[in-house]
Structure to design on (131 residues):
C-alpha cells in the first residue's frame, strides 16, 4: 500500500471530498451511471487552486480541482496563502460549507487571510463558478 504524505488533500488524511457538486455549466457526479449522460460541456477550464501552509507561497502545498466538505487533519485551519488558477472559489470558516466565507477568483493571494480575513481559519472550500 502506498504511503500518503500527511500534506495531501486525501481521504487517508481525514479530508472529505464533496462527491456531488455543481458549478454552472459543469456538473460533477460521483458515478457516471447515476444520472442520464448530458451533452459534454466544451470551452471551459476546470476550477483549480493551490493552497499553501505559510504566507508567501511557502511550506507544504496541495493542488486540487475538487471541493472539500472538510480539509482533513493536516489542512484544517492551516491555509495561509493560495493561488487560484481558475474558477471562483468560496472558502468557509467551518466544515460542511458553514460559517463566514470568502470568495476568490483567479490570482495570487500571498497572505490572503491576513488581509481579507483571519489567518488559518478555513475548514472547507468549494468551486462556485467557472472562469
Amino acid at each position: 500500500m502506498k504511503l500518503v504524505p500527511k500534506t495531501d488533500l486525501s481521504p487517508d488524511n481525514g479530508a472529505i471530498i464533496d462527491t456531488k457538486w455543481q458549478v454552472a455549466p459543469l456538473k460533477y457526479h460521483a458515478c457516471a451511471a447515476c444520472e442520464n449522460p448530458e451533452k459534454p460541456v466544451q470551452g471551459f477550464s476546470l476550477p483549480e487552486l493551490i493552497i499553501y501552509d505559510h504566507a508567501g507561497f511557502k511550506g507544504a502545498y496541495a493542488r486540487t480541482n475538487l471541493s472539500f466538505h472538510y480539509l482533513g487533519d493536516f489542512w484544517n485551519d492551516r491555509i495561509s496563502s493560495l493561488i487560484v488558477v481558475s474558477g471562483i472559489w468560496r472558502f468557509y470558516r467551518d466544515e460542511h460549507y458553514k460559517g463566514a466565507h470568502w470568495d476568490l477568483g483567479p490570482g495570487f493571494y500571498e497572505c490572503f487571510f491576513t488581509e481579507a480575513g483571519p489567518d488559518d481559519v478555513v475548514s472547507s472550500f468549494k468551486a462556485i463558478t467557472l472562469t
